[in-house]
């Protein structure tokens, strides 16, 4: 069944804006805390720039990239590093398989960067 679960996650991921809600739902079922998600999204600070390395790792685990998440840990990618990553960094710098790397960049890294830029410029 784990295979069909990861496929479901990938299908959800195609629409970047549905993702934060997806991860909030998954987290809330586990620990039952609903009220915290405003100040701390899934136990992570809402602004990716404030994430520690483990926040980044957990973000990608929650998004269904179990295997790839450890690469962010090995390379010590924290939130600030994540926001600075280029497409090339994600595709080549983490030694990930190309397929997952493309999804990670397009559906996660890029939307986080875009959202962060909007928030910090206003």
From TrEMBL:
GO MF, any single term: chromatin binding
GO cellular component, one term: nucleus
GO BP, sorted A to Z: negative regulation of DNA-templated transcription
Every SAM domain range: 51-99
Pfam families recorded: SAM_1
Protein name: Sterile alpha motif domain containing 13
């Amino acid at each position: 069944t784990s295979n069909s679960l990861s496929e479901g996650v990938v299908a959800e991921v195609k629409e970047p804006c549905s993702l934060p809600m997806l991860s909030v739902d998954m987290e809330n079922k586990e620990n039952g805390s609903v009220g915290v998600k405003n100040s701390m999204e899934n136990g992570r600070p809402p602004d990716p720039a404030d994430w520690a390395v483990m926040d980044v790792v957990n973000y990608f685990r929650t998004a269904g990239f179990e295997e790839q998440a450890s690469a962010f840990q090995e390379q010590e990618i924290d939130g600030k590093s994540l926001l600075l990553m280029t497409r090339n960094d994600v595709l080549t710098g983490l030694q990930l398989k190309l397929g997952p790397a493309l999804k990670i960049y397009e559906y996660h890294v890029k939307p986080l960067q875009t959202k962060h830029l909007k928030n910090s410029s206003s």
